[in-house]
Amino acid sequence: MSTPLKPPDPFFVFRGHTGEVQALKFHPSLPLLFTGAVDGELRVWDLKSRRCVSSVSAHKNSDPNNGIKSEGILHMTTLRNGQLLTQGRDGFLRVWDVENISSSSALAASPQHELETYSYSFGRCGVWESASTTLVSVPAPDDASTVFVWDLRESKPVMKIGPQRDPNSGSSGNEGESGSSVGLVMCTSMWSDAQTDLPTLCGGYEDGGVHLFDIRTNACLASSKLHTDPILNMHVLSSSPSSSPASVGDESSHSDPSSSGVQGVTCSADNHLVRWSIDTSRATISTTHTYEMPHPGANDIRIRGDGLIMASAGWDHRVRIWGWKKPKPLAVLRFHTTQVSAVDFGRYADTHGGKWIMASGGKDRRVALWEIY
């Protein structure tokens, strides 16, 4: 009988953050990794030289008189043009020009663009882009169970949407029902509807439920209670996977080629990762697989761009690798000494032999790089 392979150690570790690492993101085409910390620091790491090439204070509450103590980078994502969008607990969204970063050219201390949303909750934003519009969804400042959709380029709110707008008596967010019954919106994701190419919004809630919204009508199309505890993050897939090592996609850029429709996975404060699918023709959300963890709590979940595996960032200090195409546990990675906060995958033709790499960041202030399968 063969001996099981020992899980790998990180092939490199970035150190330098003075605050807990809360978010990280690979650049879509350049060999760069962005990391954000609880103290508001944004760092840019060059994957070729394996060193930090830039650092700025991106989200730090500098006004002691405004009554808001929140600071830190909560979430980050890349936009179509390669810019970096950061979401801070200071109530701001900021866009950074990262295309010209190099060992001799640092990230500008000020963002290219910023938008004050007055959203100070822990709910992570979702992004949808077209040629003329960039929409961002964040928890509403006056009612954190509802979502504000902002036009990022015009710096104006477009609409407010939430479970209380659901006209279907059979779902958990009935017409007239208070949005507070589902608790806070913990994360959102947006993608283009396959038939209309218009944005669809999905929110994960404190009560463990997922709600699907039609932005055109402000209606809740479907909902499903997937977890027993608050949903902490989601990854939604709506298109085919990447096969070339240009790099990674973003929140809603890949899917399993063997399936149809929109798929997603959520992580929670409970001990399950739940994989689900959306039938847009019937407006239903159905659980397709439940992955059981030995310990409760995962802060982040990310599916690799080829649609074969996914990684979870655990409260138990572990990064766990799971099969996506063939759903099963594959590996447990031990390195972090505290909770793991974020994971992401990347691949670049001229870096690390064109192989997929993974990054994990945690409350131990370290960022580990891994080569997995």
Largest sheet: 4 strands, antiparallel
| Mean pLDDT level | 87
Task: Provide the low-confidence segments as ranges.
Answer: 165-179, 243-259
Number of strands: 28
Percent of residues in β-strands: over 45%
Q: Give the oligomer, counting copies of the same chain as homo and different chains as hetero.
A: single chain
Assign the structural class, choosing from mainly alpha, mainly beta, alpha/beta, alpha+beta, or little secondary structure. Answer: mainly beta
Separate helix tally: 0
The Cα radius of gyration reads 19 Å
Describe the protein's topology.
Elements: E1 12-14, E2 21-26, E3 32-37, E4 41-46, E5 51-57, E6 73-78, E7 84-88, E8 92-96, E9 113-116, E10 126-129, E11 134-139, E12 147-151, E13 156-161, E14 185-192, E15 199-205, E16 209-214, E17 219-225, E18 231-237, E19 262-268, E20 272-279, E21 284-292, E22 298-303, E23 309-314, E24 318-323, E25 329-334, E26 340-346, E27 357-362, E28 367-370
Antiparallel strand pairs: 1-28, 2-3, 3-4, 4-5, 6-7, 7-8, 8-9, 10-11, 11-12, 12-13, 14-15, 15-16, 16-17, 18-19, 19-20, 20-21, 22-23, 23-24, 24-25, 26-27, 27-28
